[in-house]
From TrEMBL:
The keyword 4Fe-4S does not apply. Pathway: Carbohydrate degradation; glycolysis; pyruvate from D-glyceraldehyde 3-phosphate: step 5/5. The keyword Protein transport does not apply. PANTHER family: PYRUVATE KINASE. SUPFAM superfamilies: Phosphoenolpyruvate/pyruvate domain, PK beta-barrel domain-like. Its cofactor is K(+). GO terms for molecular function: ATP binding; kinase activity; magnesium ion binding; potassium ion binding; pyruvate kinase activity. Residues 3-349 form the Pyruvate kinase barrel domain. It catalyses: pyruvate + ATP = phosphoenolpyruvate + ADP + H(+). It comes from Ureaplasma parvum. This is Pyruvate kinase. Belongs to the pyruvate kinase family.
Amino acid sequence: MFSKTRIIATVGPATTKLFSNWLEFNDLNNINDAQQVCINIKDLILSGVNIFRMNLSHGDQKIHLFRTQLIKKIADELKIKVEILFDTKGPEIRVCEMSDNNFIIKNSEVIIHCKEKVLGSFNEFSVTDATGQYNMISDVKINHRILIDDGKLILIVKKIDFLKNIIYTTAKNSYSLKKNKRLNLPDANYSLPFLSKKDIDDINLAVKLKIPYLALSFISNIKQINEVKKLLKKSSFIPKLIAKIETQEAIDNLEEIIKNTDGIMVARGDLGLEVPFYKIPIYQNKIVELCHKYNKYCIIATQMLDSLERNIIPTRAEVTDVYYAVKQKVNATMLSGETAAGIDPINAVQVMKSIILETENNNIENEITFKKNELLIPKEVKLKILSFHKLKINKHKLLVVNLISKNSKHLVYDILKYDFNFNILFVIDKNQEHDLLLKNANFIISENKMLKQEDLLKSFNIDFNNHEFLFISI
């Protein structure tokens, strides 16, 4: 179950059913569903999930608090280190209330009200953002595209009435439009207020719960990053900031964004609506290279195994997509709808893990040497590690490191600087804190050293015939 590449899984009804609080969960009438939820989370962890993502665009704080507490409780029982990532809603433009008479016909005129609130129909509707302050009319121009509901409806701007705050458009296709559907403006630079009250409240909750990773949706420039940093400045706990790259403006400011955050999430769903789709792999490759250059986290997200929302076997293209992400040595690959709403979240994780392991096991071996003042551990331990790296064997290799030093965090960073051809499991005590987004950083909590295979057997169902182990203590 151990790999260098992390797996991030999004939590949703397919994982935790419709439970939103402990009162419902502990209700004896719900005991069967509650037990199944515990099994789901346990199986996801044992199948290889390292980090669970809370999508704050859906649900309220109570449900995310409950899910966070439940996952941490089960992980503690398993004595396996997992973490939580909060993913903010971010600035969004959404369709307001719609009537049932909402079928928009191709080539028809559709009026968008940017300030006045009207009940939407087949020929007009209103839009707003989370702050209620945004006026979309300031961002669009004649012939700009307006994409709605992930591009399922495309409108072309034909006329703008600045006095009435109305945009006149023509529909490129027919579509039944419903309320709350999100709009993208791929030809515009957004003037949306960045931090809504909801985002501020959610960020404050992340601080209160000591959530280690905070993904910021629709980051486009350094000014927005600084807004978040200013909000966090006086906090006793500061999460690692992950910028989600989703707009052309973010691509234009890419290097500056990477330098000023802890990592990047390549959010290919929204990015694919905001930039030409054929540029996505080019931009992804550029982002990965820059993250490596500046030693920042890189997470590849969206539609990695999209068909597994509905099926149990991935497409060949999806397998290749995961393969290339792992081959590029990104820190993590992410599952969204596959685990939040898919037919079999555990299968989705197992499929992703199998692709990751096969890719990592077939990577070209690197030549590794230690310079005199590098990796400050006993010489005989260094030699064992180098010998293990050079060992050619048709098995999965696992280095088990018992961290007994007071400087354990520095040792973890030192060891993970090297691109070894084996996976690493760090054995820590419950009081040690470590960064789970580091490549190859698998952690198990144990008060006792693990010095032989039998010690691992107590915690994991490992096929020992298919593994070669090296146990060390530093």
